[in-house]
Structure formats: structure tokens, C-alpha cells
Amino acid sequence: MNTVKPTERHVPHVDLQFLVKDSSKENTCDMQGAGENHEAEMKYRAFDELPLSMSVEDVMLILGIGRNTAYALVRSGKLRSIRIGRQLRITKEAMVAFLRGIE
């Protein structure tokens, strides 16, 4: 039996279909987090449109993941972030490294 020790953090598997958009949803993207369905407008349509730094909420929309999963990726170090004041920001470079699996 494979169990997670209480001191270890388990990061769930994330499906990384980056910026794949269903044309039937007209500029919206579904997010699921904490058991709720959310509809939010997709800000970016291409990789070149991504800003140099993004908020965790932007990362949630881009990757199609929930808030808890996004923060778990940041806490685990799998998705590098920087803190500016009270905000966590993810750089475009960190996003590329995460998607390519570079550590």
C-alpha cells in the first residue's frame, strides 16, 4: 500500500493542455475548484499574448485548474513564483519551465 506521510505534500496530477480552447464556449474557460463550477473570461488566446508575470488566478484560467491545485503547485516548488508585496506572481519563463517539465 502506497501512503503519503503526514509531513509530505501530495500534489495532484495536472492535465497540461496549454491554451487549448473549445470553440463552442466563445471566449470562456471552465474552472473547477473546491467542488464548484466557475465561468471566467479567457484573457489570452496565444502564448505570445501572455504577460511577463501572471497572478495565480491567471494561471488557474490558463491551465484549467482550481485555486487549491494552483497554490499547491506553487508551494511544492513545481511552479516557481516570486512574491511582490503580498502578491504571488508567476513569470512567463516559470510557466514555460513548468510546462516543459524542467526543474
Explained architecture:
The protein has 103 residues and is of the alpha+beta class. It has a domain at 47-103: Arc Repressor Mutant, subunit A (Orthogonal Bundle), CATH 1.10.10. It is 26% helix and 22% strand. It has helices spanning 56-63, 67-76, 92-100, and strands at residues 28-33, 36-41, 53-55, 82-84, 87-91. The strands form two sheets. It has a three-stranded antiparallel β-sheet with strand order 3-5-4. Strands 1-2 form a two-stranded antiparallel ribbon. 16% of the residues are buried. Residues 18-38 have low confidence and may be disordered.
Compute the average pLDDT: 75
Q: Give me the CATH fold name of the domain at 47-103.
A: Arc Repressor Mutant, subunit A
The residue ranges in which pLDDT falls below 50 over 5 or more consecutive positions are 18-38
| Shape field | globular
**What's the end-to-end separation, in Å?**
28 Å
